[in-house]
Amino acid sequence: MLVQNGFSQDHPNLILTKQGVKDIKSQLGKVPLFDATLAQVKADVDAQILEGIDVPIPKDMAGGYTHTRHKLNYLTMQEAGVLYQILGDEKYAIYVRDMLNEYAKIYKGLPRHPQERSYARGKLFWQALNDSNWLVYTSQAYDCIYTFLSKKEVKYLEKELFKPMADFLSIDTPQFFNRIHNHSTWGNVAVGMIGLVMDDDVLIDRALYGIKGLKLDAGKDNDGGDIFVEGQKAGFLANLEEPFSPDGYYTEGPYYQRYAMYPFMIFAEALQNVRPETKPFEYKNGVLLKGVDALLNLTDKNGDFFALNDSQKGMSYYSGSLVSAVDIAYFYGKKDPALLSIAKEQGRVQLDQTGLAVAMDIRDGKAKPFDKKSILLTDGAKGDEGAVGILRSTKQDALTLVMKNAAQGLSHGHYDKLSYSLFHEGNEVLQDYGLARFVNIEQKNGGGYLKENKTWAKQTIAHNTIIQDETSHFNGDYDTGSKHHSDMYVFNVENPDIQIVSAKEKNAYPGTLLQRTMVMLNHSDFEQPVVLDLMQVNSDKKHQFDLPFYYLGQVISTNFDYKKEETLHTLGKSHGYQHLWKEGEGTSTSGDAALTFRNNNTFYTITTTVSDKDHLIFGRIGANDPEYNLRPDPVLIVRKIQTQLYLPRS
Amino acid sequence: MLVQNGFSQDHPNLILTKQGVKDIKSQLGKVPLFDATLAQVKADVDAQILEGIDVPIPKDMAGGYTHTRHKLNYLTMQEAGVLYQILGDEKYAIYVRDMLNEYAKIYKGLPRHPQERSYARGKLFWQALNDSNWLVYTSQAYDCIYTFLSKKEVKYLEKELFKPMADFLSIDTPQFFNRIHNHSTWGNVAVGMIGLVMDDDVLIDRALYGIKGLKLDAGKDNDGGDIFVEGQKAGFLANLEEPFSPDGYYTEGPYYQRYAMYPFMIFAEALQNVRPETKPFEYKNGVLLKGVDALLNLTDKNGDFFALNDSQKGMSYYSGSLVSAVDIAYFYGKKDPALLSIAKEQGRVQLDQTGLAVAMDIRDGKAKPFDKKSILLTDGAKGDEGAVGILRSTKQDALTLVMKNAAQGLSHGHYDKLSYSLFHEGNEVLQDYGLARFVNIEQKNGGGYLKENKTWAKQTIAHNTIIQDETSHFNGDYDTGSKHHSDMYVFNVENPDIQIVSAKEKNAYPGTLLQRTMVMLNHSDFEQPVVLDLMQVNSDKKHQFDLPFYYLGQVISTNFDYKKEETLHTLGKSHGYQHLWKEGEGTSTSGDAALTFRNNNTFYTITTTVSDKDHLIFGRIGANDPEYNLRPDPVLIVRKIQTQLYLPRS
Fold this sequence. Notes:
2 copies of one chain form a homodimer. Chain A is of the alpha+beta class. Chain A contains 17 helices and 18 strands.
């Protein structure tokens, strides 16, 4: 390896370290998983180098060419930087240097991105968020080729590109930078990472603690989230402090926890390397390491994250951000051998000392199974704002119940207190709809959230929980919802054959107390575990109550008669009901209503106690959906009309 | 091995032979795939033996207990017989003997099955068809333990069980036995197999040539098929002669070819062993061996059979009947090494000399890939009744087009001349709906065909082909449809970049000539192959024409405007239209209409030339479906109203 000049010998020190590089080089060819990852990354980067550098003037939404190209650029630069360090081939450093120069040439002259949809537009991308992604990755590339650059080149890049970008993402875009939100985390980390490489205390301080003394007009972001809350702390540490519960649950939900986990973990690694006195992995009783563990527990048998709040289905711990998170957690945590089995499944490692350690220990047979257990993950900074309860049958993954008794979840929250979803062997059989968005598909609103996310996906009726008078919890009002959270009543999984989660919700409907108790029961009468679902409602007046079951599969049989409609009308006018077709209705005179459906060659039965006055409504999602943004999934709704329960209020 | 008495030393000779058993024993432990299959079968049978024998009085429909039990009984007896021969452990012979005695005790006294739905009820099962399944398997078990039985036991079983059953399935149920139909094939083979074991020439003759001099009242079976056609030959050889084309295509379609392939192949093997002078594998120029090859070509990348006519989706060459068929075809055919790669995928072999040969040759590395190529499979006994054309892009399995230009397909045929389905990498993206039936699910009409099979699945509108005046081809009339077939015009796949299939249909609508030409085209402008679809219609009057595209996936975008309906009505009143909801409609003024949809993370676009007078109708299956028997899949229909094309008639 040729070092062109000697003004700084301290790089790389951000993610890769000099010792790390030395260790990696000494092990090359001896660690299968690391070697395989390296070979794959090399093949990808070599192909990109052959294709040549393109730094287009930004213009497209997500999914469009310029968006995709700039994204590929930062990913490739990060990898090329790593290859330069590990393989010592200058072509990788040259590639990064030349591309950075292209960016430096245009950066200061670029206006904000021409697509005006975001509350915080970037320059390279339509959102400052994506510009932050760029800087988080590119900081690593810059660190890796730092010693390859001349002093003049360093000064040029920092003056024309990195410092202006860091300021742009913070000082110039405070509504993005100074919040408690995954967006801000990315912004904080972007500024912090480049600050560490540049050894710029101002930037590092800003990253850790936010912009001081800032006064912002109140307002909402594109998702309806509060941008500025009086007295709110900001910066990386505040974003670590507030949205994470002591159990490591991130209040926005697992999908965004996955997304935020990369900046959280990579910056923690960088701080650990460059400013170890900050002790990032010990912060808040080691909440970052707990967060990785929590996130891995928030998955089904296939490793797919539960679709709580705004969640894109199918996102799993195979995603790149979790590869990094698992490797970093292994290395800086207690070397938990269960993490190795996840890394093994992931099939690749981060190309640094953490990934090396993981790959070596896998090679040496140290992996142990990651046993997902029944677990309660509290919500709220202090762990006192409800919780997500996960029950798993003892026959591992045969049945998994996820019950959401948590707080609002910031701007990505849905209005579905005491809701649940149910999985069998990795198949979701009673579903949480997730978000209404086609991520990175430009034709669908530029890949952004669709209006049906608000009118349908966030509404209570889109979930497996109770709805009073066809009105969403908290009347679907974000400010009201954000003031409250459900309260845990019982979580007891000591007896694996009778596992219980129970919670109360007293604010979703003023005057009405909701309590739901769910029991996962093994009983000798049943081959498979069964779930008991006890929904208790105490109300001070008569109301209509709807309890939907979003079964996924085909109707096989019912124990009650129903009649399908000859023309289909919507089930209601608002609060999501306008998106449901009413397909049919029945009643049961036997005291219970049972629906058997088939999913993936397995049969499931929902049996619910009903009176002969209750309406059993078959519905399907898809009404008032002018652009086919919704999935046409089915639902069975048990409706009680003019009902008041007189149980004493607790 | 103990032979209790010596009155016959010629058994086993039906499927397993004495030499075969000797060869197998000499190879035990040396042939991985054979050994693995044997271990699995032993585990299954041992578990059944522990569970004990149960021969319940028949009462249930398919999927019910007695049905499932009797089915498990014959499968287990067949396997136990094989284990007795291979392993020499008498417990297997005793199990078969004792179970056969239980059957013999009750058989003659049993009335026809109490479920009265079938045109040909069995005794053990609701259909004589299933009784025939029983006898085909049980004959093999009987042959395997024949030498273990005393003369008295043999006489008892033949007198009380086998002879009466053979007569019951033939003489007593001629409407079942004496047809050209997969049902009759099973009946013929059942009688023939037991005839071979019993060395009963009368039964063997009846199996091969049918019941002589029979006069039956004309009538239809449950599927609407003709039971008796004047001058029609019957028996195994006629069933081999007529429904198979010279290319080995079975006119009912691949789903039933799969089902019939087991009796065809197993009886051919038995004849080859016991009556080699019949030369079954040479019959009709080796049509049986060609049939196996044809069937393997009628599958997508995953090995799933194309859903032509009445077909249950998801049935594949992994099914047991294809394991036997592939092994037998390998052994008695030209030892085609491509069959070995299929057997390898199947992961098990038939436990006889054919499976042994396959497993040994796989072990010895002789397998070669089975390359599915573009292929034309003619229909009709003489190959002159149209054909099924399969185009595969040269990038194997990237794109597969299946075009149906064949004959009616007997009682399992659908009214969909010139229709097609399209697959990409094993995903069906333009679908053939297949059948409307839940096989073996008792809750759904006892596992039998649903009424929606006739009102929906067989109708032309359920397929990707043209419909005139909302009326099915041949007015949906079976007798008319059975008189005609489409005619091939071109099938040319010499140039892999321009593959063409073209066919004409002049009888579906009197006065209207239909011709459809489909081209699979590789062009440097496209990364993937594209399909050109030229539908030409010459009619003597003005008509309405509908051309549906049953795209599977989610709408991503269109290049035309459309409006979704606020209430949903059915698209029509009959011929299947009553099962379609009309979801929306649009028009295009640009001269073409393009729909982009997403399936399995891949994007597909259908572009069709239209005038601004054409209606672009979005529909969904599921109307008039009182019991949720249909899948709610989407369709785009291009409708031309009051159209007459004046191209000269050819």
